[in-house]
Design brief:
Helix content is 62%, strand content 0%. The protein has 9 helices and no strands. About 13% of the residues have low confidence.
């Protein structure tokens, strides 16, 4: 009888050990690996929670992370989504949408980018993104808007516009956004003097290509 009772105790102990092992495997050891600070959980945009919040202050809209992923695909079918989100009340979402449009290249919307660049009420980072996107597209028709942006109060917008013009013309007219105003004005005059020649050359190239076809 004692042996039967002892056998039951051993069986119960074995079952308890198995249950504890299953619990630890599923839930982990309580308190293990914690440092006392708040737990940082991965986000849907990756292991770094900051990937969904570029400003780092929790202000990014819920669509931001999705737009960043869509922009990486460079799929023209996403253009309507980008256009819609370019009117979002959240500037970081607008920034992601404008960046996505720029990455579509010739399949994007340069008219929307120019409108964004010329909007003085828009956030400077969004306007700078629009200027950079026009440079990526090598959008010659945006030349006038980009030259205007060289005089923008925002250094970031000036720098993006200058970089875009260099990419389009493939010429460095020595415009630097941080230069003193007289130096910037001298560079702008150089750009204005050469732009008409470059643009006319661009139109001639297009005309010749049309005749060849």
């Amino acid at each position: 009888m004692w042996h039967d009772h002892r056998g039951r105790l051993i069986l119960l102990a074995a079952v308890a050990v198995v249950l504890v092992g299953v619990y630890v495997a599923v839930h982990g050891v309580p308190g293990f690996g914690r440092s006392g600070g708040p737990e940082v959980r991965p986000t849907r945009t990756g292991g770094d929670p900051r990937a969904a919040d570029p400003a780092g202050d929790g202000s990014a809209g819920p669509a931001y992370g999705t737009l960043v992923k869509l922009a990486q695909r460079r799929d023209p079918e996403n253009l309507p989504r980008f256009r819609q989100q370019a009117a979002s009340p959240d500037w970081q979402t607008r920034h992601a949408a404008i960046t996505g449009i720029g990455r579509l290249g010739k399949g994007g919307d340069p008219v929307l980018l120019v409108t964004t660049l010329r909007n003085p009420e828009e956030h400077p980072e969004v306007r700078a993104a629009a200027a950079g996107a026009l440079g990526q597209m090598r959008c010659w028709d945006a030349g006038a808007a980009l030259i205007e942006a060289l005089r923008d109060p925002s250094r970031q917008v000036r720098a993006a516009a200058g970089g875009a013009l260099r990419r389009i013309m493939r010429v460095d007219c020595r415009f630097r956004a941080n230069d003193p105003l007289p130096a910037r004005e001298a560079a702008i005059r150089r750009i204005q003097q050469t732009w008409s020649d470059f643009y006319q050359g661009h139109l001639n190239t297009i005309s010749e290509q049309g005749r060849d076809e």
